[in-house]
């Protein structure tokens, strides 16, 4: 069926599409020409990334850690990094070229992006330092957690179990308080801004929000 | 459980202005038992004698100063900085269902950008017959629709997975807002460009540095997704995507791309950062769910709650709260005062609407004793909001997102309330 059209908008020009259409897919579609290795990447990383992400991509303070955490995903506090968690290398290239460095996004060349991605891979012990990353070699890199994801299965694993008429009376014998927010005491206070910054990191780190 | 945190000595700094004096009987003013005439009645007050402000005083008004605690709040330690961060809607102080835009929560990944209508461009490209560029003025010429929907951040209540952490409904449940949107169905724009049947996905991205790109299946894109430019009657606020954002009913807030600049029709998902590294939910065995788009049925008692203590003593008490579901309309909310031993069905202020906030009330006669207040939402699919224990049994503690557990507030005889977990 041919839908109604309104004749609004105008044709997008190839140059315009090229300027905004930067996404890279897991199969490498969208990768630009260019190349880089970890040796070159280390210098760029030191200049443009390490102030937040650390010299070895290990992260500084609350800033994201890009390396490490292998085999921790089933631990109490998993460390999710490009190496330990990200399923596809394409996402690293896409995200770094598009949105990094933080505060100065969209300024990296294709070569710089390849080199930075190579350095992050090297920092995760996933390639040797002389491995040249390019469109041609991109899919040669094996991402450790590539098989670590399943499609949303809530309909099968949860929804049926939690549907139907619920208990209304005599639903349990006793009610005991097992955890109190006031004991943890990390909620910002209304009257002083100083209190909000007072406790934080140490107490809250294990349950810090992902951003 | 508590030993996963650095335990602190209880520190009872007064949380709410006046909460320290919230004891039973401390608020006798205005009670029917007054023995002496009330000077607010017997003496002519200033406002009954002279003038208030002229109509030229406030071309665009803000709330009266006495409501200055009904504001967005942030929690500094949650994030590394404030431009890729979150703040919280003061749901403890609101009523009804429409969220005032000025205190509706924000979540940015590279800050709230300023993008004027004249500079705005929306591109549709990819698997389409006619790749197009629209100006803002073009968008206003397509047929429009109005719909009210909730937007809930996938991480709402996420800090509570491991225990009771933040003391207030604003902080535990305030990554949410509910607005009436005006916009153009995404379907209309896709038809204008002539989407190809090979297109199984659309990839949407914002104009900001973070881009916030997400992949949306074509079925949803053609169903109820809106390209919106008005909310609650007026233009979107800067921080909510001015001049144009995506509205994705029932689905996690991250997909409601703000300052939307491009829609690409594709035959495969991009698997962007925001759907691989983030907004994927890790289970106890280390395997992670991806594409957990819908927000499950959920509810919370907004008052009484830690930031909204009972100040009037025993007797008539309005217990109220919000319920919502990403899978349809709310059909029922049950409330428990005893931590889930017994439940009463609350009154819905009006029938639940699909993928929108629903207000509930339970009018009770409080005897002044401890209460463990809980609410339990049910939606039109028959789904019943689970307990945190039930969620943990399936997911473990590291999912981060999609925590729709039943919340418990421990209301003490002095009227103060605390975020707790109960057995």
UniProtKB/TrEMBL annotation, chain B:
GO biological process: sulfur compound metabolic process
PROSITE patterns: TAT
MF-aspect GO terms: heme binding; molybdenum ion binding; molybdopterin cofactor binding; sulfite oxidase activity
Cofactor (UniProt): Mo-molybdopterin
Domain Oxidoreductase molybdopterin-binding: from-to ranges: 114-271
Pfam families registered for this protein in UniProt: Mo-co_dimer, Oxidored_molyb
Top-level taxon of origin: Bacteria
Ranges where the Moybdenum cofactor oxidoreductase dimerisation domain occurs: 289-408
Keyword terms, alphabetized: Metal-binding, Molybdenum, Oxidoreductase
Coiled-coil stretches noted in the UniProt entry, renumbered to this chain: none
InterPro entries assigned: Ig_E-set, MoCF_OxRdtse_dimer, Mopterin_OxRdtase_euk, OxRdtase_Mopterin-bd_dom, OxRdtase_Mopterin-bd_sf, Sulfite_DH_SoxC, TAT_signal
Name of the protein this chain belongs to: Sulfur dehydrogenase subunit SoxC
